[in-house]
Design goal:
This protein is of the alpha/beta class. The chain has helices at 2-24, 32-60, 64-79, 92-97, 109-118, 139-142, and strands at residues 85-88, 100-103, 123-127, 150-157, 163-169.
């Protein structure tokens, strides 16, 4: 409700500003009230139209996407040791797993593993879209034994069939 008052005040001030600009530009001021009402109406329509995507987002979003993170987090919570540290891109998985997270750096796989060991992370979680920023991780989906330092312990697929793998980092 407060935002609506703030938005209304902004619309009124914007319409006054536009009127002042036209006045400074030497445009006739005949029909000032009609022009101000017209400008305010256009601004209201603009504001309403700009909120349409956010209004319908809850109805259109992929509800199964976040659910896969809950599923993975639940699996980790009941399958991996309580003191497990996860290195991954998505903060939701460690949240649902009630585990500590180490952010996955943008680096080659060997440096990621070195960083993971430094931060005492025992598990690497990767999804197929991780290869967009970290090309060296694409090999983990093409060849599951791409690194002798990683052992795959679980595979998941989301609704669209994108793979999410959990690897144990071997010493």
């Amino acid at each position: 409700p407060i935002i609506l008052v703030w938005a209304a005040r902004g619309i009124v001030e914007t319409s006054r500003w536009v009127i002042t600009l036209t006045k400074d530009a030497g445009i006739k001021q005949a029909g000032f009230k009609k022009r101000q009402a017209f400008i305010e109406g256009l601004l209201v329509i603009f504001v309403i139209v700009s909120f349409i995507p956010f209004t319908f987002r809850p109805f259109l979003r992929n509800e199964l996407g976040p659910n896969i993170y809950k599923e993975i987090g639940g699996w980790i919570k009941y399958s991996l040791p309580q003191d497990s540290v996860l290195i991954c891109r998505k903060p939701w998985i460690p949240f649902y797993a009630d585990r500590e997270q180490v952010a996955l750096p943008v680096a080659p796989l060997d440096k990621i593993l070195k960083f993971a060991r430094y931060r005492k992370a025992g598990y690497l979680i990767v999804d197929e879209s991780v290869g967009d920023n970290r090309p060296s991780l694409k090999s983990l989906f093409e060849n599951e034994s791409a690194s002798k330092n990683l052992k795959i312990i679980q595979k998941f697929k989301d609704r669209e069939g994108r793979k999410i793998y959990i690897y144990q980092i071997m010493d």
